[in-house]
Every structure is written in structure tokens, then in C-alpha cells.
Write a structure and sequence with these properties.
Blueprint lengths: L4 H14 L6 E8 L11 H18 L4 H8 L6 E6 L2 H13 L4 E6 L4 E7 L2 E2 H10 L5
Parallel strand pairs: 1-2
Antiparallel strand pairs: 1-4, 1-5, 3-4
Helix pairs in contact: 1-3
């Protein structure tokens, strides 16, 4: 068992014993809106693929983190929130900001073009990251 998962399981048992709700884990993704518009005009399937690539990469990269382990143990309860960035510059700036704030994520680069298409965070407690993303005006 991963050293951190014991703490997560113990917390879950403690919360269950007290009747408290377990923390809600959410994986946030930020997808470029401009890719669906001219001059790019990518089809919906291609955009969904970019989000899937980024989400999978973030889960794999952070697979040993206790939040990711807990998130993957309840597949039927997975929660994802997909937000939009207007363009590549904004997405890259967001990635830099998240890095400075120590918010773990993956910036997906589509190959062979090497363009940033989507950013995915590892699973986080909903309240921990949503407040920060609201400050960045990613939520409408």
C-alpha cells in the first residue's frame, strides 16, 4: 500500500464514523476554446481526444499521490470539470501560474505540432482548487 493512502483511508473511516461526508475529489481540465473556431476548426472528437490525453497523463504522472489513488478507487464517482481558455497563450500562462502555486498538473502538447491544447490537474479536493480557479476567472 502506498504510504499516503493509509492516511486517506483512515480519514475516510474517521469521517464515516462521525457521519461526515468524505471530501469530493475533482479533476479539473482547461481546454483551448479557439481550437474549435476558425482558423483551426478542429472537430469535437479531436477536442475530446485532447482532454482525454491530458486527463490520462495527469492521472498517470500523479498516480502515487493519495488523492489520485482515492479518485481511481471509486470509478463510478469520478468527477471532472472542463473549463476553457481562450487561446494557447492563456493556457501556457495558466500552466506557469499553477506551477508557481505548486498546483500539480500536466500541460498536454499535441504532436507533431508541439502546441499546447489542454491542461489537466491531478485530482484535488473540490474546494481547494475551485476557489483558486474562480479567482483566475476560469469559472463563469
Amino acid at each position: 500500500m502506498h504510504r499516503g493512502i493509509g492516511r486517506v483511508l483512515a480519514l475516510g473511516r474517521k469521517m464515516a464514523a462521525t457521519g461526515a461526508e468524505p471530501q469530493i475529489l475533482v479533476q479539473y481540465l482547461v481546454l483551448r476554446k479557439d481550437l474549435s473556431q476558425a482558423p483551426f476548426s478542429w472537430p469535437a472528437g479531436a477536442l475530446v481526444a485532447q482532454a482525454c490525453h491530458a486527463a490520462t497523463a495527469a492521472l498517470h504522472t500523479h498516480r502515487d499521490h493519495p488523492h489520485t489513488v482515492a479518485y481511481l478507487q471509486e470509478l463510478e464517482r469520478m468527477r471532472k470539470v472542463v473549463l476553457e481558455a481562450p487561446d494557447e497563450t492563456t493556457l501556457k500562462e495558466l500552466a506557469e501560474t499553477l506551477q508557481h502555486k505548486n498546483i500539480e498538473h500536466v500541460l498536454w502538447l499535441e504532436q507533431p505540432e508541439n502546441i499546447a491544447t489542454c491542461l489537466a490537474l491531478r485530482p484535488y479536493p473540490k474546494d481547494e482548487v475551485s476557489q483558486y480557479l474562480k479567482k483566475l476567472r476560469l469559472f463563469k
